[in-house]
Design goal:
Largest sheet: 2 strands, parallel
Order of helices and strands: EHHEHEHE
Structural class: alpha/beta
Radius of gyration: 17 Å
Distance between the termini: 40 Å
Length: about 120
């Protein structure tokens, strides 16, 4: 195993659709969580590997830093193919991105471009 594993969201494990409080949706969430990758922390230590996980909502007061990093991703990493992004949606179409996530039909991350805002 090489490279980095960075976890910054797992929205697909949350209940989706119109009836979020339906018990079946919570059962489905539990099932998806039970299917998530598992790893032994000792294997990480002996191989000098790490797993990083964070919640972007805790960075809301760091907008300058987030703006700089998002600009770097959109203007450098994606165009140079250092980072592949399956779907980029313009801010004007953010409701489409939200509908796609809620439908459960999206695969991978959806990037909202704010370049023209």
């Amino acid at each position: 195993l090489s490279g980095r594993l960075v976890i910054f969201g797992f929205h697909t494990n949350l209940p989706m659709g119109g009836d979020l409080l339906h018990p079946f949706n919570w059962f489905r969430m539990g099932w998806k969580m039970s299917q998530m990758s598992k790893f032994d922390p000792m294997d990480l230590v002996t191989a000098n590997k790490s797993v990083l996980g964070f919640n972007l909502s805790f960075l809301v007061d760091q907008m300058d830093m987030l703006t700089m990093l998002c600009d770097q991703i959109m203007e450098e990493w994606i165009p140079s193919a250092q980072l592949e992004c399956p779907r980029i949606v313009e801010m004007e179409d953010v409701s489409e991105a939200h509908d796609l996530i809620q439908s459960g039909r999206s695969v991978g991350k959806i990037v909202i471009s704010t370049k023209n805002w």
